[in-house]
Amino acid sequence: MVKIIKKQYEFGDMTGVFATIEDITQFLLVPAGTEDEIDEARLAGLSPLGCRIDGEPMMHVALSGDGFSRDFTAGATLRNSDTAYALRLVSQNLSRKGRETTLVSSFENGSGLIARQILKFCPEQCAVEVCNELENVGETVTVEALPSFNLSCIPPFAGEYDPTKIVLHKLLSNWSGEGKLYSVPVDRLAFEPSWSGLGIRTEKWSQVGTIPARGQLPFVAVEDLSRGICWAAAIEAPASWVIETVFRNGSLSIGGGMGDFLSAHWRKVLKKGEKICTHRAFLTVVRGGLNAACARLVGAYDNPRDCKPSERDLPVLYNEFCYSWGKPRLDELRQILQVTKQLGCKYFVIDDGWFRNGYGAATRVIGDWEYDPNVFPDGVRAFSDEVRRAGMRHGLWFEFEGVSVESDLYREHPEYLLTYDGKIIDHRGRAFLDFRKETVREYLRERVIRPLIEYRIGYMKVDYNENVGLGADGAESYGEALRGHILGVIDFFREIKRTLPDLILEICSSGGMRHEPLFLGLADMVSFSDAHENASGVNVACNLHRFVPPRKLQIWATIRKNDSLEEVCFTAAKAMLGRYCLSGNLIGRSEEILCALEHSVAFYRGAVPIIRDGVTTAIEDGEITSYLNGRGRIWLVRESADKREKLVYAYAIGAPGAQFEIGIGGGEWQILDSFHAPADMTVQNGTLKFSSNQCALWGCVIRIGAAKKEDGC
Fold it and tell me: In the chain, what are the domains?
């Protein structure tokens, strides 16, 4: 057996293990108490024939000109490069500040490169936060890969590796179809040894451009069903990113971060004295299943204590888009304003359509950001004052990163725009401002920040409806230009927040295409999807609980003119899965409909502590395989922080009279309150039973609590 040097660090109920074998250091994360069960033969990479395969370095740095392992993966991945294998662990420094622990592991390659993994942990988060930093103190190099993390040897424990019991989880994501769970036993991916143990198997997925949630969310989980342990990771990914799952040495490793040269044409020249740091990754391992691991990740990149005081009670809002469809009229807005006041909404948002047409344009264009006097004859400020007198905050929609080709801005300042090979990037009439330029930021201070102040806007919805693509001009690679641009975008968001600290910021991006931890951290709310008017919104909202904190997950209850009472209750119950946002036609609705909406808002307010601070413990939608034409049942259970209350959400789509038996855990429970629940509810022996109404779309939300014991019992 080869010599293995192990260093271990405790992070709450997890243990970080740094295992160095023949100068190559791997990073493992295991549940506390399982350290002695790590199989050293598997860790060392011994094959069934007794030969040894090189381990997985924890720092997968690659430079231009590097060679790679002779394992048939050259051209498919930039992992296991000469540079990665040359890096040697030279020090580890542990420090504590308050409740936060920081561990810095430093590596050197002997030629002037210093690579550092910076790991942080707070006990209340139940996950570690890591990023990688690369510093050059030698000759100029060109970096082609610098991921945020790598976890090796999953699972690392003694016993037979059974690929039928190891499940890889991803979250698929498309417009109006976000967050769909994809789970596959890894034997289906050929993640098992060859007859000799040699050979590498990879599963790699990535996103290129500025819509990070396109195709898949930046997330991966591996679940060991035989031991009941799940590893999961999510990365900050505001632009191009890549995640790789690799089988070698009889186990899996997972890693990822910003897009590299293979996946996103990213390379960066690093001169002497320069350094670069990745965005953060969030890593966890838990004795439990996927939902438990996801809850820990979400808790790591979201902190409910960061809520603005005005957001603490998760107030209800109204957005008029699904009523006016981009053509708001002041007389109608005033009528809706009175209804939203009656319903207790706090934010009244005017979406796309409040600004004027561009030069020669038949439809409204983005870029100039001047209000349309046909919509606001007395100006936006006058209507904003009306909203405030009604006890609400006025909100406006912007999409300030894009530029319509019909705009004055496009004609007058082409130098403000991103180019590719010398030509303005133009996707069928949509161009993009270059946020690396101070002139662009100054323009937006005048056209975006100043109006927010002058109009007394209390809520800003920021949309993003197109992807820059591979990259842009102005740096040593298209990908590096894109990275510089997106860092400028993030800086401008932060400038808005500094300038207007009380502003409520919603990041929409065309139905959630910016669902990733960094943008989630910038926002007070994010749009869950554009699936506003169809039943699939329930599935989308439930599945996104695995990745987005519900307190920020804005879900629309769209009220249409001819909706039945059952349809209104269904969409209201859907909206309570996150941040309740009303939309659609509220003018002239019947007293029955308005009473149902008032009841839904009152129930939602009582459920806010569980939505804001709780944990989602169960998501069951296995019957519904199609987002578009779904039929069947779906339910979700969310538990309060003190574990004494639960919210049970249940929906039947195209399944009249569906029967529900939902496990809610041991102990005695009682029904505290409900919205649109059936009369046949019973709760006994840890099971909640009821049936849906005889209608095509049905939904309810039930709040249950631990039964109080009588004195003396």
Answer: 4-303 (2.70.98.60), 618-706 (2.60.40)
